[in-house]
Design a protein that fits this description.
By secondary structure, the protein is α+β, with helices and mostly antiparallel strands. Among the domains are: 267 residues, no CATH class; 168 residues; 93 residues, no CATH class. It is 45% helix and 12% strand. It has 31 helices and 17 strands. β11 and β12 form a beta hairpin. α14 runs antiparallel to α15 and α17 packs across α19. The relative contact order is 0.10. InterPro entries: Plavaka (IPR041078).
Length: 799
């Protein structure tokens, strides 16, 4: 069934014969911003802030934990507004036991919360946590380490890795769907988004969101075509899981690192998922690495000799997939097979089936049936016959496809259900292009300029520094010399590409300048097309054509232009290489060799541009991936990189001991405080008169008088606010003509209430106007505030 086309010619096509009961686009724009169950009853407002004793204690705790980690002027102003309000009383926070409250909020396992010591109202709140929040789980993961037959103690040995903190994937789904913030923009029904161009008879498919993609639609249709659960007639819908994981350093000057697993739900719009303040990213696990004591364990079993790097790499992969087996537990497999029966925030009961759609990570591992067969054969040699991990017999099976002898956890747990791992490993624009292909080409262009034996690199630096900023952070100022490549991130290389053509103009001689300019143009063209947030079938065809032209231009450049320049390492590259060699030499104790390497500072190795890389080859897959999963901003690694700032901010709040446990506790604490805030706001709003939904009116405000405010006190307490300047006079001027209109209408109904028109007419001179305004008197000298003011306005959202 299709919807009518909007003013832009966009319309939706649903598989079912009727429109869905829950439409997030309409709900989030036309309906009330706060929703609550009709069966809810008004409770004591103080209990809604549990474990905080009162509202002021909660507001202060919320400010501390959820208003950012930087002591900025903005946060300082928020604190001043909090403690300076008329409702704030110091005695409310003076005796608050903050330590106990923080422990309760940060408790990783809510089941350990002492129900016996809680009040009846608090017990209800704790039970709500037990229902909707399973907290974090600390597990011990066991890795089977194989020692070959020449070791002191040959055979497989179990090595336990402690403190693997993770959350249940099914509980994450449960918690998300019961959250009103998530519900208002959660899409249960996938659909095709199509566009009818005004100049064409045939409509076009629009690619953007995951819930409008072929992958989601195919999974939805497959689910509807599958047999239902016996005796169940509930709606069957899909919950789309999107995973991000990558290692990050928590600080600049220490070795504290974190390997988090982030989970987004693809049923939610990508623009919301990209906003950290929307809190749509869930921290699902903090992966553990092999501890330093693992080497002691290895030495005990080998007899004092450390194996090669291949052995330790194999153990790292074994640990990684062992942790994934913990995440893909029996509850998740049960939900994957038979679904989760949940009543959403709209009160409709559905059977929800989790499906994994994307896994965005730096250099993920592919897997196929043939690869699994080879891996199984290699593992038999290692674990049964006790061969070395990198022995020739094992390498013969694995080397051709660069495989590793590790059983993939996804294939192990989900392959029998039809899950195909290599389909979820999507392209990565940030690492493959911005920090991959473009970075390599840009550095080689610097080498080509450096080979001309002039000050061209200095000219390039000067030109980039002259580039003005554009937009709000779209193109930032280049403060450093770009040729030195110091502290450059992905966004810096993106800006370099966007400004490259005018900056490089005239630096290379002809005919090379024309070839290089064309390469830069096609790189920028491809990059812009690949990052579009909305694609059509036609624009994807353009992307494919640009990719073909880019490949031809790069091959021509390597064949004709690059050989004309005797390119060598940049000075910064050579210096970095010498520092690396010096560090490795000192670690190995080779002092003489290190000194010889360090003294030869003028040696720079020859460099050529290599096109035979995976990252360049992967650029040809982007059009197909967009057709299958939507645009790249939906599954780029950029949201995961952005979420690292949350973990780094939390790290500044804690001690450096057992920081992973503290990170998990702070995550729960902040999430529970946000839940308390939503619940308290919901209960406070239940006392207000309902605001009607009247889209034809410019604004709608309730008419209740439950919350009076003295006008004089209001003006005096806000003297520094420009909006309150001449507030009373402006308010009376606003009300005077409306009072006159009311009087005129009443003249015809009741002549006894008639007021002489001359006494309320607005004169021209200021003195007479002031005299008339003094006749406008406020009853009780009060105005009344409301929680909701609905302002209706026209938006131009395309879908």
């Amino acid at each position: 069934m299709g919807t009518p086309a909007n003013s832009f010619g966009l319309f939706r096509v649903y598989d079912q014969g009727s429109l869905p009961s829950h439409n997030p686009r309409i709900t989030s724009k036309a309906a009330q911003p706060h929703r609550w169950s009709e069966n809810s009853t008004s409770t004591d407002l103080e209990s809604s802030f549990f474990p905080y004793p009162n509202e002021n204690s909660f507001r202060l705790g919320d400010w501390y934990w959820n208003q950012g980690t930087q002591l900025s002027q903005r946060n300082f102003q928020k604190l001043l507004e909090l403690i300076g309000s008329a409702e704030f009383h110091a005695e409310d926070v003076r005796n608050t036991n903050w330590t106990t409250i923080n422990c309760q909020l940060g408790n990783l396992d809510p089941a350990e919360t002492p129900l016996a010591t809680a009040t009846p109202s608090a017990t209800t709140d704790i039970e709500e946590w037990l229902d909707a929040d399973s907290g974090w789980i600390r597990s011990t993961v066991t890795v089977s380490v194989l020692f070959h037959r020449c070791c002191l103690r040959p055979g497989p040995k179990d090595y336990p890795v402690n403190d693997f903190y993770h959350r249940s994937l099914t509980s994450i789904i449960h918690e998300t769907l019961l959250n009103p913030t998530h519900h208002q923009h959660f899409h249960y029904e996938p659909y095709e988004l199509r566009w009818q161009p005004p100049h064409k008879a045939q409509d076009l498919r629009i690619h953007g969101e995951l819930f409008t993609s072929n992958a989601f639609l195919d999974a939805h249709r497959s689910l509807q075509d599958s047999p239902k659960e016996p005796g169940c007639d509930l709606l069957r819908r899909i919950v789309a899981l999107m995973f991000w994981s990558d290692v990050t350093l928590l600080t600049t000057f220490s070795d504290a690192k974190l390997w988090p697993l982030y989970v987004f739900l693809g049923n939610e719009p990508k623009d919301k998922r990209g906003q950290p303040t929307a809190y749509l990213c869930t921290h699902a696990a903090y992966f553990q690495s092999l501890p330093d004591s693992f080497k002691d364990f290895v030495l005990e079993n080998t007899g004092g000799k450390l194996p090669g790097d291949a052995f330790f790499m194999h153990c790292r992969w074994e640990l990684f997939h062992a942790q994934w087996r913990v995440l893909l537990d029996d509850d998740f497999i049960e939900a994957y097979t038979h679904g989760l029966v949940l009543s959403g925030y709209d009160g409709i009961k559905r059977r929800l089936y989790p499906r994994i759609f994307t896994y965005s990570a730096d250099y993920p591992e592919n897997d196929t049936e043939e690869k699994r067969r080879k891996v199984a054969a290699a593992r038999r040699l290692i674990y049964k016959n006790q061969y070395v991990v990198d022995t020739p017999q094992v390498e013969e099976l694995l080397k051709d496809e660069s495989l590793v002898p590790t059983v993939n956890a996804f294939s192990d747990r989900l392959a029998h259900l039809g899950f195909n791992l290599h389909l979820i490993l999507v392209v990565d624009l940030l690492h493959e292009f911005e920090l991959g292909v473009w970075k390599v080409i840009f550095i080689h262009l610097l080498r080509m300029l450096d080979s001309l034996k002039s000050n061209l690199l200095s000219d390039l630096d000067y030109r980039y520094r002259q580039v003005p900023t554009f937009g709000r952070g779209t193109v930032r100022r280049f403060h450093r010399n770009v040729s030195e490549l110091k502290k450059m991130m992905a966004r810096d290389f993106e800006d370099l590409l966007q400004c490259a053509i005018p900056v490089f103009t005239g630096l290379f001689p002809e005919p090379h300048h024309a070839v290089i300019t064309r390469v830069l143009f096609l790189l920028g063209y491809w990059h812009g097309m690949a990052k579009l947030r909305m694609h059509t079938d036609e624009t994807l065809g353009i992307l494919e054509n640009v990719m073909k032209a880019l490949g031809e231009a790069l091959r021509k450049s390597v064949a004709e232009t690059c050989p004309a320049f005797a390119t060598r390492e940049l000075r910064c590259e050579a210096e970095c290489q010498r520092r690396r060699q010096a560090h490795e030499g000192l670690g190995n104790g080779s002092v003489a060799e290190t000194q010889g390497t360090t003294n030869d500072k003028n040696v720079r190795n020859a460099k050529v541009l290599n096109l035979k890389t995976y990252k360049l080859h992967a650029l040809g897959d982007y059009a197909a991936q967009i057709r299958q999963y939507g645009t790249t901003d939906s599954y780029s690694t950029q949201p995961g990189e952005l979420e690292h700032r949350t973990s780094k901010g939390r790290f500044t709040r804690m001690s450096r001991k057992a920081y992973i446990a503290q990170l998990a506790a702070i995550e729960r604490r902040q999430a529970r405080i946000r839940r308390i805030r939503v619940r308290s706001q919901r209960e406070a709003l239940m006392g207000d008169d309902p605001v009607p939904n009247a889209p034809d009116l410019h604004y709608v405000i309730g008419k209740s008088q439950n919350h009076p405010k003295d006008i004089t006190n209001f003006v005096q307490s806000n003297t520094d606010d420009p909006a309150v300047k001449d507030f009373v006079v402006k308010l009376k001027k606003h009300l005077l003509p409306r009072i006159q209109q009311i009087h005129r209408e009443n003249e015809c109904m009741d002549m006894t209430l008639r007021t002489p028109r001359s006494s309320l007419e607005c004169p021209d001179d200021d003195l007479s106007l002031f005299a008339v305004l003094t006749q406008v008197i406020f009853k009780g000298n009060h105005i009344f505030w409301h929680n909701i003011c609905r302002i209706n306005y026209t938006t131009y959202d395309l879908c």
